[in-house]
Amino acid sequence: MDQQKTLDMVRTRAADIRMIVMSFTISHAALLIVLGFGGDGLSDSGIQLSLATFIVLGSVWCLAFMDDGMQDMMAGLSDLDGFETSAMGQRLAKQPIVIFRVVNVVFVGLIVAAELMAIY
Questions:
Q1: 57-76 per-position pLDDT tens digit
Q2: Euclidean distance between CA atoms 48 and 18, whole angstroms
């Protein structure tokens, strides 16, 4: 595959990652508004369960999608000629993608825990 097609695929996956981050942020901001102004309606166990389900499953879906996008980006970048010798390639060699994957799981886990504590 030529370099331009690979670079275009990397750009597409970067756009996918930006979109999933935006979707995650907007959906959880909307959820916080619901929790803040929900009042007595949130005391219903069915509402609590549906919100908790959305929080957990939506977050797992976002994590999986973002992780897949990061792996695709790294694979695509490694296919580019000279990437390993570039400053970005050398930086990423020092801090592998595993660090970012762990940080994402920790941050999303903390957000989910805080939201579940607010519901129950």
A1: 999 999 999 999 999 998 89
A2: 29
